[in-house]
Amino acid sequence: MRSALFVPADDEKKLGKALRSGADALIVDLEDSVAPAAKERARRIAAEFLREAAQDARPLLYLRVNPLDGGLIDGDLDAVMSAAPEGIVLPKSLDGASVQQLGVKLAVREALFGLADGSTRIIAIATENARALFGMASYRACSARLEGLAWGGEDLSADLGAESNRLPDGSYGDPYRLARSLTLVGANAAGVAPIDAVYTNFRDSDGLRTEAIAARRDGFWAKMAIHPAQIPIINEVFTPTLEAVARARAIIAAFEASPGAGVVALEGEMLDRPHRLRAERILARVGPRPAR
Fold it and tell me: pTM of the full predicted structure?
């Protein structure tokens, strides 16, 4: 997965357009983009959308539910789990225990609706309040359902009482750079995908590209989006170039030609295990995109 597009669950027109956006995944949103009075209607629309979309070649389909402590998540899952989304995006996750708590709820609904046990994956948004930043290490081995950690600076800035999460030049301030780095490190420690935050100015294509390139450079595998216009840029940036793929294949071939070697030579450069690991990760991202 390179790109994941948020779509309000109560907007049928936007849901239809999102299927044609080219995003690798859609996150049907029952949380922030849906007003409290519209939650019940949004659940019905989301369930119907997931059932209808499942009949065609499509992106991966995830559902962002409401937070564990908000009193709405059980209603979300009861209404929509029968439509068998690929996964659930958990907002305001605090730590690995939050993922485990959601996993129990999913196991109950999978049994109730005849879904395979463990089939519903989890992506946790792991930086939406100050407390969550101290829980990153706990995601390691917390649940086999966990497939990604994402971060975001909007809710965190509200929790911190900040005037803004960005500096005048458009870059993130220190608290949000810390959250970003902890997510990247925590995801890799847990062996799951690190996913970069949304870029909220959807009209600023240059800013989006710059931020996506920086995320890819640092090790993020994908980036979330809030508008279909952002998807082509994100997909382009997170698709390995032909040169990168060729280099990765050459590195793997060099190691395979010298079984047991800790260090190999390639084009005048000495390469060791970290080089091979980076090459393997590049090649893992090559191939058919996750349309279902």
Answer: 0.90
